[in-house]
Specification:
heterodimer, A: 107 residues, mainly beta, seven-stranded mixed beta sheet, globular, B: 122 residues, four-stranded antiparallel beta sheet, 0% helix
């Protein structure tokens, strides 16, 4: 099975900060990597698919990069509504899996 | 705008079968082009993909749950369903139904239901 490891597990930042979250796969997954945002009590929301493609309607301050085993989600300038938990997900193998999540909190 | 809505009992007794249905509106399951999934989230934890189905009836199940899971589709009602047998307290979770486009980017979810909490308890 392909294991997905996110870092950090939690992060404190301020409005306006640039934030980067990392996701590492246990083997190469090419660009089959997706990012989601989840707020408390809500379903996850797709932000980025195929490592760097921005889902329709998602603000351009969100961006994704990487290929192979190392990927990043970057928020260029944090907004109050961005404080949430972020998950990566590999879609390379049939047995798809999510990372453990990164909780982004207000400093 | 596609919408997905889960329905089913919020409380299931241990050893019984958990049954949930997802009703899809704003799009037809039988038109193809999408996989229809069940994903769960244990309280305060991460996300676990249970399995998915195509409109034709072909399925994939997470190997860790395969022996207990059945996902079916009813295109006449534009619904798909989950059955999870022999449940224990470890199956207590929020259950989401979801849609994934078929295509070259692999399995990702573009639409989610709101989720429904299922508690396993006597």
């Amino acid at each position: 099975d392909i294991q997905m490891t996110q870092s950090p597990s939690s992060l404190s930042a301020s409005v306006g900060d640039r934030v980067t979250i990392t996701c590492r796969a246990s083997q190469s997954i090419s660009s089959y990597l997706n990012w989601y945002q989840q707020k408390p009590g809500k379903a996850p929301k797709l932000l980025i698919y195929a490592a760097s493609s921005l889902q329709s309607g998602v603000p351009s301050r969100f961006s994704g990069s990487g290929s192979g085993t190392d990927f990043t989600l970057t928020i260029s300038s944090l907004q109050p509504e961005d404080f949430a938990t972020y998950y990566c997900q590999q879609s390379y193998s049939t047995r798809t899996a999510f990372g453990q999540g990164t909780k982004l909190e207000i400093k | 705008q596609v919408q997905l809505q889960e329905s089913g009992p919020g409380l299931v007794k241990p050893s019984q079968t958990l049954s949930l249905t997802c009703t899809v509106s704003g799009g037809s399951i039988s038109s193809g082009g999408y996989y229809w999934s069940w994903i769960r989230q244990h309280p305060g934890k991460g996300l676990e993909w249970i399995g998915y189905i195509y409109y034709s009836g072909s399925t994939y199940y997470n190997p860790s749950l395969k022996s207990r899971v059945t996902i079916s589709v009813d295109t006449s009602k534009n619904q798909f369903s989950l059955k999870l047998s022999s449940v224990t307290a470890a199956d207590t979770a929020v259950y989401y139904c979801a849609r994934s486009p078929t295509g070259v980017a692999g399995m990702f979810v573009d639409y989610w239901g709101q989720g429904t909490l299922v508690t396993v308890s006597s």
